[in-house]
């Protein structure tokens, strides 16, 4: 079927009117939009409404995202501040526990300078007491010495700095502790420096 041209369609829309005298006139019959054009306008309006709805939803989600980001930033800053304050509190408590040791060391030093300590035994006892107080204060904060007596060498806790030959002891056993190691809250902060038996 052959499609109609624009001129033919225009002619179809024209209507001829004749009066009693036989005079005629043509007018355009396209008095309003047809059903297809009305449907097209409705579709356009629906699309515009949908777009406005989507824009509104997007703006609401963006606002919510910005609020969440601000909340997270505030939480991060607050956590960092609390962590710093906690570390300062722990540090202050530790230093406070060390103050009596410093006092005892000062008194012992002053007594030695003034000649109040007349023998080595008195000085030795004073040093031993200060050492015990130091171990107790550090133990209060989770510090524990690493045991090396009659122990096998363990690279997780010990650092070998020399080998010793001893037929009476098994290979790999610790022969001597040269420097004490320590654990704090289950974590090695300094391994023990040891000599290890090696008979091979």
- Number of helical segments with 4 or more residues: 3
Secondary structure category: alpha+beta
Helix content: 40-55%
Spans of at least 5 consecutive residues whose pLDDT stays below 50 are: 27-31
List the helices and strands and how they pair.
Layout: H1 6-12, E1 14-18, E2 24-28, H2 35-113, H3 120-140, E3 143-145, E4 158-164, E5 174-179, E6 182-184, E7 187-190, E8 192-197
Parallel strand pairs: 4-8
Antiparallel strand pairs: 1-2, 3-6, 5-8, 6-7
Helix pairs in contact: 2-3
Mind explaining what this structure looks like?
The protein is an alpha+beta fold and 200 residues long. Helices cover 54% and strands 20% of the residues. It has three helices and eight strands, in the order αββααββββββ. The strands form three sheets. The chain has a three-stranded antiparallel beta sheet with strand order 3-6-7. The chain has a three-stranded mixed beta sheet with strand order 4-8-5, with no helix packed on it. A two-stranded antiparallel sheet has the order 1-2. The chain is elongated and about 115 Å long. The N and C termini lie far apart (108 Å).
